[in-house]
Design brief:
The chain has 558 residues and is an alpha/beta fold. The protein is built from 22 helices and eleven strands.
Amino acid sequence: MKSKIKNIPLDGFAGLKQNFSSDALSGFLVFLLALPLSLGIATASGFDAIYGLITAMVGGLIVSFFAGSLLTIKGPAAGLIVIVAGAVAEFGLGAPKGSTTEQIATYGWQLALGAVVVAGVLQIIFGLFKLGSLSDFFPLSAVHGMLAAIGIIIISKQIHILLGFNPVTPEGKPMVEPIELLLELKNTFANFFKHKDVVILGLVSLAIVFGWPMIPIKAFKKIPAALIVLLVSIPMAMAMGVVNEPDTVDAAGKAVKGYKPLLEFKKGLIDIIGVNVSFEGFSQLGTFIKYVIMFALVGSLEALLTVKAIDMLDPFKRKSNANKDLIAVGVGNVVAGALGGLPMISEVARSSANVSNGGKTRWANFFHGLFILVFLLLAVKFSNLIPKAALAAMLIGVGWKLTHPREFGHMAKIGMDQVAVFIVTIIFTLATDLLIGIAAGILLKMILHMSRGVSFISLFNAKSKVEGHTITVEGAAVFSNFIKVKKQILSFPYTDHVVFDVRKCALVDHSVIETLHHLKDDFANEGGNLQILGIEEFRKVGKSKHHLAAVRNYNHNR
């Protein structure tokens, strides 16, 4: 049987010739979206704004040539802001005594770069050892909880910036802890009208971020809301004389530092090109290892999840090579980190925009990087005019998408067990950090599985055997043991008829069921069939009726 998908675009230089106009146009439109977001992500992460553009440039011009995913856009991600800002702050604590605030920030930045580079090397190793299936180990409810927590953290910081404040601790250091920032909102809102012009500018920008996508004119939807924010906020800031450095306030809300002018680029591309990384962070070994793990683990997880999501959007239903893409992202992080840039991932908002704009091959990502390079060479001083309140509005929009209430509603429809894992992951992430947060979600998920008849051994070892075109699984099919089983399914061509027999399982969880639904679609698109045998005899866990809810075999012999 032949594939149902026709006219698949060519790859390589043949693809460039075939799809030049569509990829160049999509690359330009993605560039318009990536430009302000890259600047905002960099400043929110404690980096000079220009280094966000360095990462986007590397992600396009270099990584696109050997990426394993044809449609994803590589660049700095809002989802890593929390980790990057934390790394800069913690490494900065080791700066020599007597250092100025600027010297402490520079020291923290350079040591954070060392962790980014080492994490990039680790990602390359992940890819070489074919760990691209890493994302399959994490339960989807915990992943969504982690992303929602990141969204809350981004919003908790950027609301202050939007209203003209930059809270500090009683010791005079910038607040980075989510709980502190959330509690400090009462002081910021109490001084809501202190910077009236900034508030007006920020709220207008926020209204555009949320309102522009709702305009029912198809042609307008092609124009990124972020670009409209720039076109409106820059003239407004110039007309009102709005300045761009938020007040620093102490815990009582008292101003410590005045409000000063606009986003500043002290250097251009030619001035900053060079090696900026430092590996002195090894002297703070515990901190260094923690951030290497977080950059490598969270960055890889976000990148791999984006690749899976964009594969589902690809109109040509092409399948990415996750291991190859992980190597490519790792190489990009080594290069970007050495040059001073933020860590990169395959970024979901820009990648989905690439698909909707008609991008067809890896050249769209290349063109996005090329336009970033041209901007860095010719127009970087223009960025001095972008108000920080406008950048804050854009990042609040990104954070809102990550933590949208519909995420909670989606989890509730699938089952209250998913809600529990989702909320626990959020709470532990906000109270501690991302690693502990997602670990707490995974632990709760495992406890719930064992309470439903899954043995501890079965959590990690699915007893499976392949006979002809039938794969039989015993014990359980759950997120933590499914990687091996998924490989067995994928060992068959999508054109085959494959039977996946779960009649001897006690439980099939939500993550596995969702993965199986996607695999069924993949087989169907290529003319084959994946039949799931026995699941119709199982009952939904709890009171859920959702088609992706976990199912339990109540006849299973415990």
